[in-house]
Amino acid sequence: MQFPSGYGSHPPNYSAPSGHYSQVPNKAAASHLDNQYRASYYPTYYSSPAQNVMTPSVGTSVLNTQESQQLYNKTPHTVGSAEGPVQGAISSASYLHTSAQQSYSAFGNHYSTSVSSSVASQGFPLNSDHYAMPVVSSAVYPNVSYPPAAPGSVYGQAFTSQSLPVVGQVKETNKFSSQSTSVPHSLQQHVPVGYNTTLSTTSSAQSVQDNLCSNLTRSVAKVNNQINTGIVFLEKNLSLSISQKFAIPKAPNLNNFPSPAIDSSSTTSSASPVLNNYDALEGGGYPEIVSVFNTCGISFVLPETRSVTSSPVPAPSVPQTSKASKPFGYGYPTLQPGYQNAAAPTPVQPSNPGHHPGLQHYPQQYPGVNQLTSSIGGLSLQHSQQPESLRPVNLTQDRNILPVSSVPAPVPNLNSDLRKLNCSPDSFRCTLTNIPQTQALLNKAKLPLGLLLHPFRDLTQLPVITTSTIVRCRSCRTYINPFVSFIDQRRWKCNLCYRVNDVPEEFMYNPLTRSYGEPHKRPEVQNSTVELIASSDYMLRPPQPAVYLFVLDVSHNAVEAGYLTIVCQSLLENLDKLPGDSRTRIGFITFDSTVQFYNLQEGLSQPQMLIVSDIDDIFLPTPDSLLVNLHESKELIKDLLNALPNMFTNTRETHSALGPALQAAFKLMSPTGGRISVFQTQLPSLGAGLLHSREDPNQRSSTKVVQHLGPATDFYKKLALDCSGQQTAVDLFLLSSQYSDLASLACVSKYSAGCIYYYPSFHHSHNPAQAEKLQKDLKRYLTRKIGFEAVMRIRCTKGLSIHTFHGNFFVRSTDLLSLANVNPDAGFAVQMSIEESLTDTSLVCFQTALLYTSSKGERRIRVHTLCLPVVSSLADVYAGADVQAVVCLLANMAVDRSVSSSLADARDALVNAVVDSLAAYMSTASNLQQSMLIAPNSLKLFPLYILALLKQKAFRTGTSTRLDDRVYAMCQMKSQPLVHLMKMIHPNLYRIDKLIDESTIHVNDRVVPQPPLQKLSAEKLTREGAFLMDCGSIFYIWIGKNCDNNFIKDVLGYPNYASVPQTMTQLPEVDALSSERTRSFVSWLRDSRTLSPVLQVIKDENPAKTEFFQHLIEDRTEAAFSYYEFLLNIQQQVCK
Amino acid sequence: MESVVFIFSLIDCCALIFLSVYFIITLSDLECDYINARSCCSKLNKWVVPEVIGHAVVTVLMLISLHWFIFLLNLPVATWNIYRYIMVPSGNMGVFDPTEIHNRGQLKSHMKEAMIKLGFHLLCFFMYLYSMILALIND
């Protein structure tokens, strides 16, 4: 409570200049506010101050919010009227305010007309801030028509504060000017840096606030004296002067970089005030940027340290309190120049209301902010407590690091506008949401840089745009996207290569609003994920029809396994749901030691089987009638599907001529392209592509070398490339009980962009779980969306380059992925490097464009664009790390490594990835105790996930793993999208015997309980409980021996534990609350993914128990560390 | 006799130089997207064995004619060629594999290798030329 008094003593400095800072008082004073604030704040990680502003107000009173919002909304208008072009988006409006204000404060008289409005706008932030403290003022502020007097007073204060420092300022400025002149280059370079830091430090804003509250409470008492504030102000002035100087020359440059501008907007709008302040404060230190940076920048953290470090460098240290107060007033002036510039050149714009002007303004604001920020970036960390994602976590002591519910994707530290526009993390994720500025910085962070894509995901909302001219950059061919900037109405600047392009006439018309002259409101510019209907320019040939060819193994082995019944049945059920149009074609080939074709030509009374026994030189007996129109020959097809399962029941043929069958299929498909689905049950033993068993069963649990992870022959790879060239994909279903050399067979799908399904020890009656899985997979497989003759290109901002691709496809040229088919369950990953330093930009963008032919014969382009901030400090890189993406990318890299080098190498590389990155992190935080294993909050799950990876089938050693299982796990890692892969690596464990209505969510009128995530450790499994493990493709329900009988009765439908059968795959519908809850929870989990997983109930004696327990990765096994041991091991290596 | 050895080496070296240039041109075509990975790799793989043989022949010739220095100079490169050929994984389509050439900077390393070989062969060329002239004069 010192705070309030301190605050009171300060009032002028405080209240006036820093509207935003008033938040601090809020927090300190009103604890309930605080709570709310936190709640709203942390989930979003970097939520910008603007949000904060809103939330506190909500907390205090509903009225206030409303009023403040009103204010908010209206202010833009007033400003707009004063300025002209301003309208529209609230956020943009807010920028304007700030800029206006800035200009106001800086140039005072300049904006005399706009003063009132600007004041009002300021009033807004003040409003929220002030709530806690001066109730009266808040009451006053809400008024839309702002009493000029009040603002005046506020401003007057601001001015006074400014005027006070003037002397100091002059001095400082001189210093600065001299510096600036002497080192113009460095300045420019620094600008972006600053900017980046700002972005990252939006979080710092948060932290600042935290600090502030703590600092304020503590330090206000000490620092309170006016003198200090005076100093602060001086510093501010300095920063101002600096920023102005820089900003003015920079402004033109900025124009070149539209994206930064946008960012800056974010900073300015919400977060910036704080940051600006920061910058301003630090700005004083600007000349010594480097040194400051080094000395204190990196040591983020504890308040104590902070104060210690700050003491040697008085200027930055003082700011803490002062900063908070200053930034506002000062920040504005800085921005002002930009604003002026912006305003001057765009007299034409008034016609454009909202967005456009906003965009323009941002760029100019950018320079000032950037510069300041850049210098401060490091400092901010020091001064403030770290943002949530940088909070150090002592891994060896913190046992509960799992979040309550699923791990959220980190939100890039962008302003709220951009964040809203940004691509969904489900489709597009980057391992580092703060992109390091240089390769050197990236190397220092020891984290991989890459993207994880899920471009063809099933979307519920997807804007589809039909247009005759698809607007693209003329030099880099980037599609127009939300992150481009409009220089004026007729020109836009590409955000990837910075070329200025013309806006075509047609683009001026907005079909959504039916208005003309608003290119920035077109759906292409409003959505980061769009689908464009392509014109004939995007076709090399007329769009192909959907063509499906099924190649079925009918040897003795296959008949014995009994898969034919399931496949034919599924096909019959889904024949009408196969994606396609009236041209859809379908065909069948079966093979054992010969290849059988089926003539299904319309007009035949029954299907005709044609047997080709010359497998060394395969040919098509009747090329025209093997692939037939689905609709014309439907009856014949149904006849065939009904007959097929019984046709080969007495076969004695044990050989399998897969290679020749595939060659035949390729010949059949090559005129059109399409999809080949191959069902194989054993090792191919005849003809081209025959394989020999390479697995030594005694080596399955070897801890040393695992051989034969790569293909044995290049036959399948060549075939895949041939297929890919003819737009044909091969999907492989391997249903085998013995070794079938998946490593070789998988190539046929890998390089033709197919998918791979593997059902080990499949048998239709002995293994019902696998049979059910096949059924479900087939249903999904047959009915899901499909894109034909697709190509995908990933573009990124100049300076970044993609050097490695992961997934199923063929890389045709440097950045063009050829995908014969694309399906919604395919994920891709790419690794990137930073070839040129990104110092002159504050944002980088990535664009994926997937051009495909839909099953209806339409050529479409799906475009995703992701925008991320660039940062210059190591701490910010860590703050933005997306641990799930990092782990998935590492998994992909490890698969490559284990094939090209060895499994042991790959495992070492995984462990080293953790060791290196944590060591690098700990070396940046010098104040951490070296004896502990500390990770930033953003990476706290990193060791756990890596341990989980090491215990995955793909990479584990010592535990008996069949070669095919291992290879299949590797294939999945390469081709699964992140969501599925994470479930596979680290399953979710829930306790379901005591589902309660607390913390439930409502989905479609259903109540879905949300039990907390449990650690994957046997210690969590109590005999009294029942647990559900969600492994992505399979759900295990484990029932403890002493599980409550009511649960068993209600949920499982059996009287007691003993009577629950071994093979239970469904939950019965029992009319009881707990049953309903459990079922709604399970079906909710199911609905969240495309593959409907199989459910398996496990009792103690169940053979599937081992599977279940292998997923408890935190426990020790005979061959692998427990989590704690693993941590100790890492710690040892880190300290080495 | 010695002059014959060097005349032959000179011709062989010329062929290797042309081969290196061909490699470089084809790889840079791929880099610039003029040809696709598949055709590039099939073109180049055809010439991997001739290159290995061509170089091995010179090396052996130098050993036989007891030109130790030139032999030792050639030995590492010849060994590298053979090693590279032998170490191709069984699933790959040759030293140049179209599915991998765009990954992990392989294209760049292939290019670098071709450049280094070109330099080496040029060096050898002048050495052989000098030795040949010397031998002819001595004869």
TrEMBL record, chain A:
Where are the bilayer-spanning segments? none
Which subcellular locations apply to this protein? Cytoplasm, Cytosol; Cytoplasmic vesicle, COPII-coated vesicle membrane; Endoplasmic reticulum membrane
SUPFAM superfamilies noted in UniProt: beta-sandwich domain of Sec23/24, C-terminal, gelsolin-like domain of Sec23/24, Helical domain of Sec23/24, vWA-like, Zn-finger domain of Sec23/24
Domain Gelsolin-like, residue spans:
1009-1081
> Is-annotated flag, keyword Chloroplast?
no
Its membrane topology, per UniProt? Peripheral membrane protein
Assign the protein's first listed, main location to one coarse class: cytoplasm
One Pfam family matching this protein: zf-Sec23_Sec24
GO terms of biological process kind: COPII-coated vesicle cargo loading; intracellular protein transport
Q: Sec23/Sec24 trunk domain location, by residue?
A: 543-782
Region: Disordered; residue ranges are 1-22
Gene Ontology MF terms:
SNARE binding; zinc ion binding
According to the entry, every stretch annotated as the Zinc finger Sec23/Sec24-type domain falls at 470-506
Where in this chain does the record put each Sec23/Sec24 helical domain?
A: 882-982
Keywords per UniProt: Cytoplasm, Cytoplasmic vesicle, Endoplasmic reticulum, ER-Golgi transport, Membrane, Metal-binding, Protein transport, Transport, Zinc
What CDD domains does this protein map onto?
A: Sec24-like
Q: Name one GO cellular component term.
A: COPII vesicle coat
Q: Where is the Sec23/Sec24 beta-sandwich domain?
A: 787-871
User: In which family does this protein belong, per the annotation?
Assistant: Belongs to the SEC23/SEC24 family. SEC24 subfamily.
Entry protein name? SEC24 homolog B, COPII coat complex component
UniProtKB/TrEMBL annotation, chain B:
Family annotation (PANTHER family) = CORNICHON-RELATED
The residues the entry assigns to the signal sequence are none
- State the organism's lineage: Eukaryota, Metazoa, Chordata, Craniata, Vertebrata
Read off the InterPro entries from this record.
Cornichon
- For this UniProt entry, which segments traverse the membrane? 5-25, 52-75, 118-137
The way it spans or sits in the membrane comes to:
Multi-pass membrane protein
Main location as per UniProt: membrane
Which organism is the protein's source? Chloebia gouldiae (Gouldian finch)
Question: What is the protein named?
Answer: Protein cornichon homolog 4
Location in or out of the cell:
Membrane
